[in-house]
Amino acid sequence: MTITVVELYPEMLTQEALDILDASIETLAAEDYPAKQGLRFVWQWHWRGESVHGDLRFEWNDHLRGFTVFADKEDVKADTAVTNEPGMGGKKLRATRKARQPKQWLEVKGEVPPGEVGATKNLPGIFEVYDKGTYEYGAQKPYLYEFFLHGKKLTGRWLIRAFRFPRLGPKKQPQKGKYDLVLLLWKPEDQTPYAVSKRARELKWFSPKGIIPLPKDWIDEHPEEYQKWLEQAKEVWKKGVKEELPAWERRTAKESEDKPEICDIEWVVHEATWKGQEVIRRMPNVRWFLRLKMEGDVRSFELDGHPLWSGSLIAFDEGIVDDKWFDFEGEIPPGGRYNPTKTLPVTMSILFRGRGTLTDTGEPKQRWLLKLKDKELAGSWVLEQEEEGGDVWTLSRGELASLAEVDFVCQHHRWGDGHHWDIRIKFPNRPYHDKWALEANPIETGLEQEIPAVRSRGFDNSWIEFEGEIPPGKEGNPTKDKIAYVEILDKGRATVHNDSPRFLSLTFKGDRLKGYCVFVRRNTVWHFIKSRLPQALKVGDPRKGEPYDPPKVEETEESIEFTFYDIKAFTVAVPQSKLRRYIRDIPEGVHYNLAQYPVKGELPEVRIQSIAFDKPKWTKEKAEQFIRKTKPWEFVAQQVKGEQLTCPNCDEVLNPKAVRLAKLSDEFNDVFRCSSCKHVFSPSE
Question: Which of 101, 123, 89, 115 lies closest to 44 in space, CA to CA?
């Protein structure tokens, strides 16, 4: 979806509206920035059937951060969806944040077969790399992300920024007082880095200590301006170091000296989920809410991300809500509050809850310092209003959670006639461990095979290390007269990418249980899946010699066919009658399909597009062995015109032009020899 904002809602781009969005509450913590500059990025167009969207992914320390970018299908086909022109002609593209992902996604390109991640059940997925390269980060705020791209097509300063648009009703009319958060992506006309912009100077905005949110090219071109900025930044950083508290917490403490307003609170973070697009992974749609109970009232804020993983977020103030929502868990029917769908139920779950204190120090706009006591969200947070009387707030904290490194163990649990397999995962900041009881062995199960599982919490963490016998009647032994056994099959560390009440993704690093795996909850049943991430597939392009990897395989009752290159990339097929001009030794029951494609300034080239094997002369295993041995995708030859001459001694196919010249020579026997074996040709040959 392409959005021209000025045409949609011109009133939203007034200077006043931009000032509201630009008014930074405070810098983000250093953890909100990558550890270094010059990391990789990729922009992929991702097709599923006829639908298409963009995947903009940034390498970010130990994982990827990214955005889904929406564009008109016809613009993508015409290569006009996004341009490198500053301002992009007034066009802005709608975007949404992606969940954090493993780095493998950075290299994905080519076709993903139906049933694989990145495709649908019945349609393939295609990843086209629109551009890739390196990037440098600029300012990073809860509602503003600045990047400097160094790609082949996309270069310079790019922004992803949050805007508030009126929520549209059934007849697409704006609903009074209701707004939605919309992220827009574009290349601005003003290529000046935010850190040295007029707006940053007015707000006295500086990045966290040691963070240089300026690209190297700009620094090289503006050495004096850079030195001036750096000196000012060092002064700000130096003042911050002298105090025990972070800058925003120090400011709050100072302002609270005159009239502190501190109250005890209860708080809860909710996650609302509903069925997403019917793709292979079937990720749900998600919304998050922070609710504070103060003096009997419940104040609710809708967040634009998961607070454990996102660090600093936009928070929309819903005001006082019915206190039933504070403890609510369960399904919300269509049409109910917090259910934006017409036909689907929404499930609301509690992610975290606890107690704490709230200090209100802000005048005239509100600024709350939250001291939370829950283990996972413990610490100081700032919830601050953007403008007096407004409903846009930001939620920030001093540290951003990195990918969690956890301990795991995989055990086989046997008793009497029963048994199951346990995967136990221990987060470092939780007093318990998460346990999944599986119906099958997760180590031996194949990729994308779903294993039903039961999730529970174990408060005796000694089970993480336990192996041995369990006497009858003891915990872990459901029998009264038989010994139960626990065998450790594998143990080690794992990296958690996403964790919620309905979805957990992680990469196991054991000796036997390894790779990317997910736990998905559908209705009331959990499923464990060893996931096949899309590989760095090649696109079947004969011009580049990039075959499908692995080859496409189609099996019928009569034959098995292996396809190496996209047939649409060729201009004409080589007739079977001319096949032996290129391939002399063809086993019985094997059918080569050759095709040619043009080469600028030279004769067309020919490659083996596919090979078919007749049954029952060839089994699939035997055909695969033949392909591995001969590597037919590597074959390439220039188009052969006219009659072909083959050396009878070594089967070398000779250059037709040389043959014609030799036949015209009066001294044929003396001048024409095979270049490989030096066989001398006679005129009869």
Answer: 101
Where is 205: in which H helix or E strand? none
Please name the amino acid found at residue 288: W
Cis status of the peptide bond prior to 223, with omega within 30 of 0: no
Q: Does the pTM exceed 0.70?
A: no
Q: Which two tokens stand for residue 623?
A: 């055909």
State which residues of the chain have pLDDT below 70. Answer: 1-32, 167-172, 175-180, 240-261, 276-284, 309-312, 362-364, 375, 387, 397-403, 501, 533-538, 642-673, 675-676, 681-685
How many residues does the structure list for the chain?
A: 685
Within 10 Å of residue 473's Cβ, how many Cβ atoms? Answer: 10
Helix H or strand E encompassing 572: strand 572-573
Q: What is the pLDDT of residues 121-140, one digit of tens each?
A: 778 888 999 999 999 999 98
Report in angstroms the alpha-carbon separations of 590 from 462, 583, 612, 636, 653: 60, 12, 6, 19, 21
Amino acid at 604: P
Q: Count Cβ atoms below 10 Å from residue 128 Cβ, excluding itself.
A: 16
> Would you give the DSSP letter of residue 173?
P
Q: Is the Cβ–Cβ distance between 423 and 412 less than 8 Å? A: no
pLDDT tens, residue by residue, 180-207: 678 899 999 999 999 999 988 887 888 8
47-98 confidence digits (pLDDT tens): 887 889 999 999 988 788 899 999 999 999 989 999 999 999 999 999 988 8
Integer Cα distance of 367 and 375 in angstroms: 24
d(CA 63, CA 539): 25
CB 464 within 8 A of CB 409: yes
